[in-house]
Design goal:
Elements: H1 4-18, E1 23-26, E2 33-38, E3 41-49, E4 52-58, H2 61-70, E5 74-76, E6 85-88, H3 96-111, H4 116-122
């Protein structure tokens, strides 16, 4: 269970994620793992680990390496492909705008692999 402060932050990130075009959310792994997808392809997961909020996002392999070496509160994706995913535990070294930028990047990485028809629906 996340603490009360984490729940407020979690709600803010949830709102940000759900504002993405064609975003759908679900809980396929149980109530502790909130998954966000675009055209059935996951681009984010919000959960609690050890009582703290965590956000798992897709990233390029170079970004995964850089971010995990640069920030103590970023690790290779928890229960995910360690080459393509990061898990962030929000901390004072990471700003909200940084996390939002990484969310945007994760969404872009996933949507860039969609079909032409699916991509056209993002703009409607």
């Amino acid at each position: 269970m996340c603490d009360k402060e984490s729940k407020v932050t979690q709600n803010e990130y949830t709102d940000y994620l759900l504002a993405k075009p064609c975003c759908e959310d679900s809980f396929p792994f149980g109530p502790e793992a909130h998954v966000f997808k675009v055209f059935n392809k996951m681009f984010a997961l919000i959960g609690c680990r050890h009582g703290q909020l965590s956000i798992t996002l897709k990233a390029t392999p170079d970004d995964v390496t850089f971010l995990t070496e640069e920030f103590a509160s970023i690790e290779r994706g928890y229960h995910m492909n360690k080459k393509h995913w990061i898990t962030i535990t929000p901390s004072q070294e990471i700003t909200v705008s940084m996390i939002e930028a990484w969310i945007d990047n994760s969404y872009s990485l996933v949507t860039s692999k969609l079909t032409k028809i699916e991509r056209s629906q993002l703009n409607n």
